[in-house]
Amino acid sequence: MTREKIQEYITNQNPKSHMPRDRKEKTENLLLHSEKPTRVLTETSHPQGEARALGRTTGSPTVKLTERHQGTNTLFRKFSEMKWPMDVRPLNKSLVSDGKWKRADATQEKRRSFLQEFCKKYGGVSRPQSHLFHMVSRIYVEDKHKILYCEVPKAGCSNWKRVLMVLSGLAPSADNISHDAVHYGKHLKKLDSFDLKGIHTRLNTYIKAVFVRDPMERLVSAFRDKFEHPNSYYHPVFGKAIIKKYRPNACEEALNNGSGVKFKEFIHYLLDSHRPVGMDIHWEKVSKLCYPCLISYDFVGKFETLEEDANYFLQLIGAPKELKFPNFKDRHASDRRTNAQVVRQYLKDLTRTERQLIYDFYSLDYLMFNYTTPFL
């Protein structure tokens, strides 16, 4: 992949396919029409009270509105003038007392350095081209320990959310938190739920972590999870559209329920520039979920060394000693974990060209996180 192509991927990320309509409208109000008086920041209710604080003015309604407008513009200007990409700060290791973490620490420094050098070489960007709220929409916030965690589905995110719930005091143990409570309970805050001041402060003062996975393994894991088991969302929404477009002479039952999507059909959908249904976070590129060349992550973990990386991170942030990262599967527990051998079984049904195109699709993730190019 050429330097110019890499820069194009990094700098021209289009958020529209990911952004819910209400979030898009809110973002456009803040970013595209900031010259007009707006009440978005001052009327949005946040538990932290930051938005309310911005609205505490005295005098006539006209004066109040003017002051609110000025406050909004000041915050927006401050955020826009931030240095992009953000500086990588040295890890604070003052809370790590056990010498057994030397290997994990050395690995972490290599990953941080590699990603930083990659972005410095290929990033070529001083300002983000995407909406600010979209850039941070996958980042979870844990205020007590000052953590920002960017969610990468199929890279241990369910158990990470359990850990964040324990750290924030929402649960005594990660072991008894159900899958539905993790993903549908809305217990955890996301960074895009804060106002600009709250986002700016946390990006500059909290430890930022991202956990990634070999792109091909992550892709196969997502397919197995969403299409090889009953699913009331992915089958009717994605399955029906995929079967309709990519399966000649599909039977009526398959067209009606969307079940039984084949891996090859799924890959045809993934690689189609005119997909019949949009992308999904479970197989979206990490470069478009977490923006690692704009948001400089302090900690880069990998699914392949998840337990060691995660428990070292818990040491760094001063987590309770009894809290350990859970390693169980809470869905399809009897299924074999997706690993390199499982991936090869799925890839063997694809042509060499199709395998190469998958690599090309995820090439930026392979390069920036230093994953070995798969044997195609």
UniProtKB/TrEMBL annotation:
It comes from the Eukaryota. Its EC number is 2.8.2.-. It is found in: Golgi apparatus membrane. Residues 1-24 are annotated as: Disordered. InterPro entries: Carb_sulfotrans_8-10, Sulfotransferase. Coiled coil: none annotated. It is an enzyme of class 2 (transferase). Signal peptide: none annotated. Belongs to the sulfotransferase 2 family. This is Carbohydrate sulfotransferase.
